[in-house]
Amino acid sequence: MDAKTSSADLSGEAGSEVEAKGARRSRVSGIDRALQVIDYLYETGAPAGAYAIAKAVKAPLSTVYVIIDDLVEKNMLARNTDGSIWLGARLYHYGLAYARSLDFMSVATHEMHDLCREAGETVQVCGRDGDYMLVLAMADGPSHYQVASRVGTRVPLNWTASGRLLVGHLPEAERVELFKRCARTSPTGRADIDARTLSDSAGKAFEQRLSIQVAESDYAVACIASPVCDRSGECIATISIVLPEQKVVSDGNHYTEHVRASAQRIEKLMGWRNH
To answer: Using an 8 Å Cβ cutoff, are 204 and 175 in contact?
Structure first.
């Protein structure tokens, strides 16, 4: 094989490699756009039109239309009768499969239902999603008392007992900066928004393994939460009882004992109690 042929072959191979890389970049770009659409719907928590989505993710409207049509066809998104777009059933099935694979969620969900029977009230398992608290699982109590926050609900960390616990293990300076960034005024106006006050209460609640909030996020609703900590001592989730605020005033100790014991049982079953 002469030098000319070799050069041509190499040039051809280089061209093919560039084309392959370009194709990969194109595919990744398409995936990124699809994830931007899904993430936007997840973060806003409500259906939206294609125009609003395109504006939010800063993508051409024509591109967003193509992505939405493709994802709707694959059941990753669903189109409502009014034309708005929401998350599709396929994502729910993926979520269920992922949840089944997590030992922690299996243990925590079992304990959640046990606590619900013991306390006779609604119980939630919550985690952190960036600047928000996220309801991961929920067991409805036997009473007719309705809790507004359902599975998938995201609220600012400073609104809830669980939100403060989820960052209570962080260094003080980090907690202060976090609350400066994410603290929001709650619908009732009773949630604290001062970063240093929130940092102090988060640290103390974590040390005491107990956090209580009354009517900070919803009127007449109280929450008693305890942290679930992993081997390193970080709060990875909380278990909490959600109940009418008058019950906390009249018989708070009864519930605090139950919720602390439940958190400890989850840690023990996961092998984390020696942290």
So the answer is: no
196 has pLDDT over 80? yes
Each residue's pLDDT tens digit, 113-159: 999 999 889 999 999 999 999 999 999 887 766 676 788 889 999 98
Query: What does the alpha-carbon distance between residue 257 and residue 112 come to, in Å, rounded to a whole number?
Result: 15
8: its two tokens: 């041509």
Q: Which residue from 137, 102, 130, 131 is spatially nearest to 262, judged by alpha carbons?
A: 137
> pLDDT band at 186, cuts 50/70/90?
confident
- CB environment 206-240: b (16+ within 10 A), e (fewer): beebbbbbbbbbbeebbbbbbbbbbeeebbbbbbb
pLDDT for residue 9 is more than 60:
no
Note the pLDDT tens digit of each residue in 221-268. Answer: 889 999 999 988 999 999 999 988 777 766 657 889 999 999 999 999
